[in-house]
Write a structure and sequence with these properties.
Elements (H helix, E strand, L loop, with lengths): L1 H14 L13 H15 L5 E7 L2 E8 L1 E3 L4 E2 L6 E2 L4 H14 L25 H5 L19 H10 L14 H15 L3 H13 L19 E3 L3 E4 L1 H8 L13 E2 L1 H13 L5 H7 L4 E2 L7 E2 L4 E4 L5 E8 L4 E7 L4 E7 L9 H10 L12 H11 L4 H11 L7 H13 L3 H14 L4 H13 L3 H14 L4 H13 L1
Antiparallel strand pairs: 1-2, 1-14, 3-4, 5-8, 6-7, 9-10, 10-11, 11-12, 12-13, 13-14
Helix pairs in contact: 2-11, 3-6, 3-7, 3-10, 13-15, 14-15, 14-16, 15-16, 16-17, 17-18
């Protein structure tokens, strides 16, 4: 998620006219008041989350917006617990460098030092390449973040997977590489991944509310995730507690939870040398490899690096599971950080950290209010609708005809409802989509999946066959037709 959001928005920010930039300090209350006003106005159009802005040891803004729990009317605050997503990766990178300081590993170490039976094509992969996403591993292993794949099996799959390219040739973002790093942390330290981070990073920084399962969050509000600000998906912490573990599909690459206050303490630890030496911080934030060909952002160790329009350095990373979104922005030369968390990600509110960034440094910039998300309106209407499926289809077609310009809207809607076992909505919305966009193989593929989940096997086969007729290379539809015909 980090690369899709970051790559599309960096260019926009860099092309902004380099006008007059404000000198940020604690007395510049006008700028902060303007940002506060903008964020408060954004609440009515879907902002649920928290924003912190600091200059060194001075917090300029630290507020919560919207709800952590809509059902119980619990508001977001700086002490609300949010998922930070792939911002977890910079914690993993910091832990590797801490182990290097402790003499327990070197970033030049080959992975053969930590894993047995490494295939020939991976024997020269080193820790540095894992940190910079240049090892060539696939993006993910497993179907979800919560697949309970045994430790030995997960790393057997990782190490026997086909490399996307020869190690060291280029950058390709991968969660698998950071799960390998998490395992290396365990093997080098003799502790679990989370225990090592807690003892060597979080406690020294004063961060007692950051982790997967070890923190005591009993007195804090844990934000529920709301799909498009409507569908309550709860919190993944419940899954970790139920399973009694964190899946290797997630460990080290994402899923850590924290508060804004704790994440600010982490920023303070980074700039003060409380946790890592100056030499290690330089290694952590050095731009090693171009992220995307033709662009201007580089990858360091768990961080992306690029220049602002002011010519200053940005150290940043974001992360998302599609519902939670976190953005950590650090401007070391200006001694500024912006921390943004939301528990109801949409395209509109995902732009807020960029907008706050621009407002902070450009006194003349006044942004437009974020737009209410169309998908949010669609979800709200369908969730609250009182009537039969035929009525729902008719009303959606009538009410949203001008906005339904792409098959992706109803495809997303029906898929999410299907995953949440709301087939009473998923089925008619998927059928409507095939009427509106009959020549799109992807929506027929979704239609087949929803028929299958409803045990309408004959209809599912016909839908999948329609997808194949439209696109003979639709591998999922081909596989499903074969599977269903064998069952019949």
């Amino acid at each position: 998620m980090r690369k899709t959001i970051l790559s599309t928005l960096i260019l926009v920010l860099l092309l902004v006219t380099n006008t007059m930039y404000s000198q940020i300090n604690k007395s510049n209350q006008k700028v902060i008041d303007k940002i506060k006003k903008y964020l408060i106005a954004s609440e009515k159009n879907g902002l649920n989350g928290a924003v912190l802005i600091a200059k060194g040891n001075d917090i300029l803004l630290n507020e919560g917006y919207g709800m952590a729990n809509k059902e119980q009317q619990i508001k977001n605050t700086p002490q609300t617990v949010f998922k930070v997503g792939s911002v977890t990766k910079q914690f993993t990178a910091a832990a590797i460098l801490k182990l290097e300081e402790q003499g327990k590993l070197k970033v030049e170490d080959f992975i053969t030092k930590y894993f047995k039976d490494v295939p020939e094509d991976k024997k020269t992969i080193n820790i540095h390449q894992l940190l910079t996403h240049t090892a060539g591993f696939v993006h993910d292993i497993g179907e979800t973040d919560f697949d309970n794949i045994p430790t030995d099996e997960y790393f057997r799959r990782a190490l026997t997977s086909k490399l996307l390219f020869k190690a060291g040739l280029k950058h390709e973002y991968t969660n698998v590489g950071y799960s390998l790093l998490a395992r290396i942390i365990e093997l080098a330290s003799g502790q679990t991944y989370e225990a090592y981070l807690r003892e060597n990073l979080f406690k020294p920084a004063g961060m007692y509310y950051t982790g997967y399962v070890l923190p005591n969050w009993s007195n804090l509000s844990i934000a529920n995730g709301y799909i498009y600000n409507v569908i309550n998906k709860g919190t993944s912490l419940d899954i970790h507690k139920k399973e009694g573990m964190v899946s290797w599909c997630l460990k080290g690459n994402g899923g850590i939870h924290s508060t804004q206050n704790d994440m600010y303490k982490w920023y303070q630890a980074l700039i003060s040398g409380k946790v890592l030496s100056k030499k290690s911080i330089e290694k952590l934030t050095k731009p090693y490899v171009l992220e995307y060909e033709g662009e201007t952002s580089y990858y360091a160790y768990g961080w992306a690096i690029f220049k602002t329009v002011r010519g200053t350095k940005t150290v940043t990373h974001d992360g998302s599971d599609g519902t939670f979104f976190y953005d950590f922005r650090w401007f070391p030369e200006e001694n500024i950080t912006i921390l943004y968390a939301t528990n109801s990600y949409t395209r509109s509110n995902g732009e807020i950290p960029w907008i706050v960034d621009k407002m902070l440094f450009d006194v003349d910039y006044t942004p437009k209010e974020i737009k209410a998300d169309f998908m949010t309106a669609l979800f709200e209407f369908t969730k609250k609708f009182n009537g039969n499926q035929s009525d729902l289809t008719r009303e959606v077609k009538s009410k949203f005809s001008k906005q339904l310009t792409s098959p992706s809207y109803l495809n997303r809607l029906s898929s999410i409802y299907a995953r949440n076992n709301r087939m009473d909505i998923a089925l008619p919305m998927a059928e409507l989509n095939t009427i509106l966009f009959p020549k799109n193989d992807n929506i027929w593929d979704t239609m087949g999946e929803i028929y299958y989940k409803n045990s309408y096997i004959d209809k599912a086969i016909k839908a999948y066959q329609k997808a194949i007729n439209l696109n003979p290379k639709n591998t999922n539809a081909i596989a499903m037709v074969k599977k269903l015909q064998e069952k019949n």
